[in-house]
Amino acid sequence: MRDASTTPVRAASRLASIQEPVRDRLDGVVDEIRRIILSDFDMHEEVNDYLLKMRGKLFRPTLLLLSSEVGGTPHRDALPLAAVVELVHLATLVHDDAVDHSVLRRGLPTVNHLWNHQVAIITGDFLYSRSVMELTRIGRLEAVHSLARASNEMSVGELRQLMSHDTLRFSEKDYYSLIACKTASLMAAACDMGALVGVETYRDAFRRFGHALGMAFQIADDLLDYEGSEERTGKPVGHDLRERKVTLPLIEALKHVDGHDREKVRDLFTRIDPSEEEIEEVVALVRRAGGLEYARARAEEFAAEAEAALAQIAEEGEAMEALRESIRYAVERTR
């Protein structure tokens, strides 16, 4: 059993270790983000200032910076590219929260909750458009292509999720297609763009690494919905169930329950506002049916794929070691 009192500390320490080789450059990424989204429109400035406060741990920019430094020296374009990756990630989260009518993100009120859904959608569009403007300023067509492909896949992923409400028909294959679009695509792009300004011969290996890492990362994230806590994750246990999102632990559990329990799950997904008791019953059902153990095993399989991709890169050093460590962080983090 995991020690809930020490695991968050270990996860934070591991991320700090991963970011250590590029820590100074991450400060530069934040400066680049501020420069790119600078606006003379007061409303944009107000929302953008709030987004900077609720930004995440800069994991994707970290992957880009580390990838760019393997076998080479830091390139000046890596900082704005890393900033663009984080802005696209933020834009996706803002849009997702508006679509899902979420009120919390990372323990803070969402843009759509503080303002409204119209402001959230326009803000996401603003972040996307500023990102494209920055890519054109840099003048790297391959970076435009890589990020545009990821953005397109993330849009497809959001549509897939909107269509996944029939819990008894959503398959494991459907789930992998969903998370490949929504999560793995941007991590793959981050690593690809890092290699683009680093050692280009490694682009394919880095892209495969980023994809596998993103798959493991999202499965681990979905596990937190069943085994985390609001204090640790910034959202209540069963949050995905409340939003009628079908994830791997539930998909696997449904293979092993009887008709009564299957109907209990179906009933939950038809309710507009399910009760805490109903949520807790389904969470307990998934745990009993082995859904968590199965999902952890699949996350480890994708982690092994990420390790295999890195093994194709004939370089060593701090950046490579940090990238290897990022795999364990992805599957073992608590928020």
List keywords for this structure.
two-stranded antiparallel sheet; mainly alpha; disordered N terminus; 335 residues; 17 helices
Describe this structure in words.
This protein has 335 residues and is an all-alpha fold. Helices cover 73% and strands 1% of the residues. The protein has one domain (7-332): Farnesyl Diphosphate Synthase, CATH 1.10.600. The protein is built from 17 helices and 2 strands. A two-stranded antiparallel sheet has the order 1-2. Helix 2 packs across helix 5 (78-100). The model is unreliable at 1-6 (pLDDT under 50).
Tell me the layout of helices and strands.
Layout: H1 7-19, H2 23-36, H3 42-53, H4 59-69, H5 78-100, E1 104-105, E2 108-109, H6 111-114, H7 117-138, H8 141-162, H9 172-196, H10 203-227, H11 230-233, H12 239-242, H13 248-253, H14 259-270, H15 276-288, H16 291-310, H17 318-332
Antiparallel strand pairs: 1-2
Helix pairs in contact: 1-17, 2-5, 4-5, 4-9, 4-17, 5-7, 5-8, 5-9, 8-9, 9-10, 10-16, 10-17, 14-15, 16-17
Summarize the structure.
With 335 residues, the protein is mostly helical. The chain has helices at residues 7-19, 23-36, 42-53, 59-69, 78-100, 111-114, 117-138, 141-162, 172-196, 203-227, 230-233, 239-242, 248-253, 259-270, 276-288, 291-310, 318-332, and strands spanning 104-105, 108-109. A two-stranded antiparallel sheet has the order 1-2.
